[in-house]
């Protein structure tokens, strides 16, 4: 099921619109399942190994090779690794 009634080929162009215009045109048509969860959330909930090293680790490795910091990628990696080590499932964003 498509999240929008528009052809998927239009999306790259529509995503370049300013937020306000995008919201006016598509805000009400975009549907996100309120029960949807990411695969990493599911991994943390089920105590499985996450993909964090693949997803963010690659970014930090490239940053290291180029002498860059990548602080957000490092922080995300640290937080996910901590959550996995704690074994309490996915942390809540609201508390």
Give a brief outline of the structure.
This protein is mainly alpha-helical. The protein has helices spanning 11-14, 19-26, 39-46, 52-55, 57-66, 71-86.
For the biggest sheet, the summary is: none
Strand content: under 5%
Estimated helix fraction? 40-55%
Number of strands: 0
- CATH level 1 class label of the largest domain: Mainly Alpha
Domains counted in the coordinates: how many?
2
Low-confidence blocks of residues: none
Note down, in words, how this protein is organized.
The chain has about 100 residues and is mainly α. The protein folds into 2 domains: about 1-35, no CATH class; about 40-85, N-(1-d-carboxylethyl)-l-norvaline Dehydrogenase, domain 2, CATH 1.10.1040.10. The chain is built from 6 helices and no strands. The mean pLDDT is about 85.
List keywords for this structure.
single chain; 95 residues; mainly alpha; N-(1-d-carboxylethyl)-l-norvaline Dehydrogenase, domain 2; 6 helices; 0% strand; extended
Topology readout:
Layout (H helix, E strand, L loop, with lengths): L10 H4 L4 H8 L12 H8 L5 H4 L1 H10 L4 H16 L9
